[in-house]
Design a protein that fits this description.
It contains six helices and seven strands; from the N terminus they run ααβββαβαβαββα. It is of the alpha/beta class.
């Protein structure tokens, strides 16, 4: 609890110190600025995170390998994430065989909560985390200011969209697959 409070206080201090970010949306709404949008049009940045067994994996094992990939930032304790994930499951089931994958990057800090949520929600794709919550390397590298958040990456590893909604994701996959 202390660590989460400290992380929140650090984030709050940063937002207050950077007024331009105070007006930035964490939801990715079209009418508000998306801090992850700066990555659109660029190659993804590789990260090393662990799977459930604690085994390290590079993001590049899954991204830029000929499939469309949604990098999904979430956590078991995030209500909006848990609301959106059943829709992502539907999209994954509809397009997985055609060349679509998801890599879930969890901002959890407890392995059991993370694993339990994945199992309960039937999330059949790859899951990675460093179990550092908001101190995760993924948060820093990809400017994750709120969750749920995501990046859509093309088969060559280029980021083509950030914080895409599930309906727009399905429409995009209809066009490209």
């Amino acid at each position: 609890m202390r660590k989460q409070l400290f992380s929140f206080m650090m984030l709050l201090a940063w937002v207050l110190a950077c007024p331009a970010m105070a007006n930035t949306s964490m939801s990715g709404d079209d009418d508000e600025e998306d801090p992850m949008e700066v990555f659109v049009g660029k190659q993804f940045t590789d990260l090393k995170l662990n799977d459930f067994a604690g085994q390290p994996h590079q993001l590049s094992e899954y991204v830029g390998k000929g499939r469309w990939v949604l990098i999904d930032f979430w956590a078991s304790w995030c209500g909006p994430c848990r609301e959106e994930l059943p829709e992502l499951v539907k999209v994954w089931k509809a397009y997985h065989a055609a060349g679509f994958d998801v890599v879930g990057i969890s901002l959890d800090d407890k392995t059991q909560a993370w694993q339990k949520a994945v199992q309960k929600l039937n999330l059949s794709w790859t899951h990675l985390s460093d179990l550092k919550g908001w101190e995760s390397k993924a948060v820093e590298v990809y400017r994750v200011w709120g969750i749920p958040a995501n990046l859509l990456v093309d088969p060559k590893g280029k980021i083509v969209a950030s914080n895409i909604g599930m309906e727009e994701l399905a429409d995009t996959l209809d066009k490209v697959l």
